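We close this part of the discussion by returning to an individual protein. Part of our work consisted of pairing the sequence of a single chain with a tokenised description of its backbone. What the numbers capture is local backbone geometry rather than side-chain detail. The amino acid sequence and the backbone structure tokens for this protein are reproduced below.
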Amino acid sequence: MSKVDFQLLIAIAAPLLIWPWVPAWDQPPNKSILNAIALFTLIPIVEEVLFRGLLQGWLLEKNWFSKQEAGVSRANWLSSFAFAAAHIWQHALILAPGYVLVSLVLGHFRERYRGVLVPVLLHGYYNLGLIIFTG
């Protein structure tokens, strides 16, 4: 029998408490089937491969970036700030700290599971919740 990952359970449950307090989007996404597919599958795959797979993975190979700051790798910090910066053009600046926080969680699971599958699934789940609760 496999061991339960309580950190992952928290990462799944915590947004249920946060989503109702997230401000509505300035321009809610179009709720077409193609947009839904993009938000829940394509965007998480592309962003996680770029930010967690390529950028964070490359940084983790560098000794300085593999060191921890406040319990988080420097690679995760840098890729999380890059992730937030990439979203500023599309969303209100006040949401940037939330993007950093979500990215740190995704980056944690990228390192914990040594891959991007879990971050991709969490990212898709987080996007789904945002659409349901704030769209």
Observations:
- The helical segments are 6-18, 33-60, 63-66, 74-88, 96-113, 117-134.
